[in-house]
Amino acid sequence: MTGGDVIGIVVADDHEVVRAGFAALLDTQPDFTVLGTAADGAEAVRVCRSTRPDVVLMDVRMPGTDGIEATRQLALEAEHSPRVLILTTFDLDEYVFDALRAGASGFLLKDVTAERLFEGVRVVASGDSLLAPGITRRLISEFARIRPHADAAGTGSGLAGWSRRACRTRRSRPGWW
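Given the sequence above, the corresponding structure tokens read:
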């Protein structure tokens, strides 16, 4: 964090009123300080390099360099890579997957309450990850759908792919691991 327990934040959004509104809202918290704002992804990267925030609140769709590409560039920073919290109106799985692949630590929708936004910034700043509840539900469903069945060998124990000897050892020692 930037100093003591204060979380340094950069807000990146192409809509000036949204950017200013989120910056003002975040500045109401005693443990937050808004270090800068940016109107597009390229500016967000520049502002982050000069201010070294802990968290970037990043919109996805911005002119020029979008939020996904800016997130990817920030994730590659060797010196100081801020945690990116995507905040967007677009509840599209494609954006969620692309943002997470690019290195985002969280994904919230702009209809989030102020309290949830504050919590999200704190969670991401602490090193954890956060997704909007509806997004979490869809990701779990997608993972369950595409993950191969763990019991493909038909052992009934979830030990598919293990040797017979390893399975016998596991079954004979229930508390083994």
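The chain is about 45% helix and 15% strand. Try to locate this feature in the token string yourself.
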